[in-house]
Structures are given as C-alpha cells and as structure tokens.
Write a structure and sequence with these properties.
By secondary structure, the chain is mainly α. It has one domain. 77% of the residues lie in helices and 0% in strands. It contains six helices and no strands. Helix 2 runs antiparallel to helix 3. The longest helix has 24 residues. It is globular, with a radius of gyration of 15 Å.
Amino acid sequence: MRPRRPPSFATSDLLSIARAEEAMRAESESATPDLPRAVELNKTFHFAVYEAAHSPILVEIIRALWLKAGPVINLDLRANPERLAKGDAIRFHADVRNAIAAGNGAAALGGIAADISGAADFILSRGGLAG
C-alpha cells in the first residue's frame, strides 16, 4: 500500500513535533533519566505526529490501541532502562521529525513503523508479554 501524499503541516504542528522530539532526546541523554517522564514524552511525540494529520478518527483509533500497549511499554522501559539511551527510538523519532519537515510521507511512515515494530520485537524477545 502506497502512503498517501503527506498533508501540508501547519507550523504549529511542526513545532509540536519538534518540541516533543527534542524533549525526549534530552531526557534520554540525561545522566539520570526520569523513566516515567520518558514514557510520557514518547507518547507525546507519537501523538504530536498523529494529531498533525488532523484526522480525529485516526487519533481515536490510535488512542484506543495506546491504552492497550502503553502499560507494556511503561513496564518494559522500567525493567530495561538502558533502552532509553541505547535504543533506536531516539533515532527513529529524529528521522520521523526530519521526514515530516521535508514532506517525505514514506520516510515518516517507515520511521514510525520501525519505531513501533522495534519496540514490539524487543518486548517480545524478552518475554514481555508472556504469561
């Protein structure tokens, strides 16, 4: 499936995405990162991206899915804090931010997909959903 042409993002959308990406990157680079804050900043970044599409239905669907996945992400990050500094999420977020700013929808989609699937693969490899 080919991604649709990316919408023209408002300056306020681009700023929200940039602020969210910068805040998460700064938290990941902290000598003593606040892990619950990092989880919230990850969510803030993702929703800045999703809300920039100006599709209430999309945001509603993702919000419902996030309610299911969020607790697993939270527990995983608390159990594996090294992932914040060494994980790929920070790079993926920067790639998504840059792709959106450049109007490259395919790259933005690829970055979001890689971020989500990378986290899922890691959680599953560690038995994060076993039980």
